[in-house]
């Protein structure tokens, strides 16, 4: 098969990141396919299926081998969402096969207090690496050794496309040794490797471009600002909305995903999240506002929805029209989710809770002075009481945040598609 664009991810849950772009490519006559590794991560997905008009293959269709998959599909371009081991294998093999690779941002990465300071950026990399490591205790890392051995073999297979002497390449065992000790250091960019960078990177904003250069080592010439494609539906929604008919009467709480039983961040249990949501929702209910709890799309919750279900003034949503949800809300609560860019560009109030036990670990918004940090429920209650009369006011200057959010014009998806087609 001679494929134009290969999308790669770890499951099909994130297919929305590609489904924005795919119609543009199809309209221009280009072929596309998604390959994912869900079965290797214990997920049960079909080996071959069509989702949102995109042909999807589990890697087991290709014998669970990334290099064999590339040799079978022969794509011209691979679009990646991550920078983990599987992605690095694809980058290394693709480079040796003459296949172009593109990394596309699908969420906020930089948490630097000063996005123009190399020292601040590197400090944020250290902080993020520690946060990732905290989700993988020693026992969970031991359980992953068989996976690491399988990927080590595949890594050498990718390197062998470059040289038969790949067994002697020191960077490969060094990478896996470091990954066993501190997976966060590899994922977050503390250590950089020759094969770790895709040929090109597509980012949201100027701050992100600087971050990719300083943290990951991308040359500025290989980083293109395209904007946040997740904001395109929001732009369309706000453009079409009839403001004379809108009825705003709820507050959205964005769950960070840190309570996911698979990768729990210390302190962020489902019970702790439920307690915080309930406490805030009771305060909001006293002021006449209902609460919508937006769950993280990639998390597998076992208790959280059940713990919330008995409160009639709290609505729990999993998949929904985020543009409509955020566009019609009054206030949005969250810590570091990319979704917070939506209320930011719409000039809506953002509340960032830093209340024990869900203490604030990483929030680029708080570090950049965006939103209001509350450290107790009394502070939150006072904030709500004081902010309600100001809901019609402009709370942020859009020009001040444009460098952070990137362009908000509804054309990010089109820019991504144009970039990809320029490589074909």
Secondary structure blueprint with pairings:
Layout: E1 5-9, H1 16-19, H2 22-27, E2 32-36, E3 48-51, E4 54-58, H3 66-73, E5 77-80, H4 85-97, E6 100-104, H5 118-134, H6 138-143, H7 145-160, H8 171-181, H9 183-188, E7 200-203, H10 206-216, E8 223-225, H11 232-240, E9 250-254, H12 270-286, E10 290-294, H13 304-308, E11 314-317, H14 322-327, E12 331-333, H15 341-345, E13 350-353, H16 364-367, E14 372-374, H17 377-387, H18 398-405, H19 412-422
Parallel strand pairs: 1-2, 1-5, 2-4, 5-6, 6-7, 7-8, 9-10, 9-12, 10-11, 12-13, 13-14
Antiparallel strand pairs: 3-4
Quickly list its features.
424 residues; alpha/beta; Rossmann fold; 2 domains; eight-stranded mixed sheet; six-stranded parallel sheet; 41% helix; 14% strand; globular
Structure description:
It is a single chain. With 424 residues, the protein is an alpha/beta fold. It folds into two domains: 238 residues, Glycogen Phosphorylase B (Rossmann fold, 3-Layer(aba) Sandwich); 174 residues, Glycogen Phosphorylase B (Rossmann fold), CATH 3.40.50.2000. It is built from 19 helices and 14 strands. The strands form two sheets. The protein has an eight-stranded mixed sheet with strand order 3-4-2-1-5-6-7-8. A six-stranded parallel sheet has the order 11-10-9-12-13-14, covered by helices on one side. Helix 12 links the parallel strand 9 and strand 10. The chain starts with a strand and ends with a helix. About 1% of the residues have low confidence.
């Amino acid at each position: 098969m001679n494929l134009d664009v290969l999308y790669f991810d770890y499951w099909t849950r994130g297919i929305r990141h590609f489904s924005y772009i795919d119609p543009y490519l199809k309209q221009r006559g280009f072929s596309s396919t998604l390959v994912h590794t869900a079965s290797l991560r214990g997920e049960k997905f079909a080996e071959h299926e069509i989702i949102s008009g995109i042909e999807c293959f589990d890697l087991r269709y290709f014998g669970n081998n990334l290099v064999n998959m590339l040799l079978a599909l022969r794509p011209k371009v691979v679009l990646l969402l991550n920078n983990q081991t599987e992605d690095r294998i694809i980058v290394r093999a693709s480079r040796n096969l003459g296949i172009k690779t593109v990394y596309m941002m699908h969420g906020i990465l930089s948490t630097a207090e000063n996005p123009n300071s190399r020292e601040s950026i590197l400090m944020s990399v250290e902080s993020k690496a520690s946060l990732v490591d905290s989700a993988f205790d020693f026992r969970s890392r031991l359980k992953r050794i068989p996976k690491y051995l399988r990927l080590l073999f595949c890594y050498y297979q990718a390197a062998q496309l470059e040289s038969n002497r790949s067994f002697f390449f020191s960077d490969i065992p060094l990478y896996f040794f470091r990954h066993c000790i501190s997976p966060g250091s590899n994922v977050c960019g503390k250590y950089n490797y020759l094969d770790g960078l895709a040929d090109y990177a597509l980012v949201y904003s100027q701050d992100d471009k600087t971050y990719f250069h300083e943290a990951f080592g991308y040359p500025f010439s290989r980083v293109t600002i395209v904007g946040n494609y997740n904001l395109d539906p929001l732009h369309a929604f706000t453009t079409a909305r009839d403001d004379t008919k809108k009825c705003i009467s709820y507050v959205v709480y964005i769950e960070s995903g840190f309570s996911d039983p698979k990768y729990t961040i210390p302190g962020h249990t489902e019970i702790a999240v439920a307690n915080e949501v309930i406490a805030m929702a009771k305060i909001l209910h006293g002021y006449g506002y209902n609460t919508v709890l937006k769950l993280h799309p990639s998390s597998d919750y076992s208790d959280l929805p059940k713990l919330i279900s008995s409160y009639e003034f709290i609505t729990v949503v999993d998949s929904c029209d985020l543009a409509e949800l955020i566009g019609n809300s009054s206030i949005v609560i969250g810590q570091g989710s990319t979704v917070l860019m939506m209320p930011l560009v719409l000039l809506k109030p953002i509340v960032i809770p830093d209340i024990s036990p869900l203490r604030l670990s990483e929030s680029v918004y708080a570090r950049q002075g965006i939103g209001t940090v509350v450290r107790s429920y009394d502070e939150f209650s006072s904030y709500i009481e004081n902010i309600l009369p100001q809901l019609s006011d402009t709370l942020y200057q859009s020009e001040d945040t444009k460098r952070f959010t990137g362009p908000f014009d509804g054309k990010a998806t089109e820019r991504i598609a144009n970039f990809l087609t320029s490589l074909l």
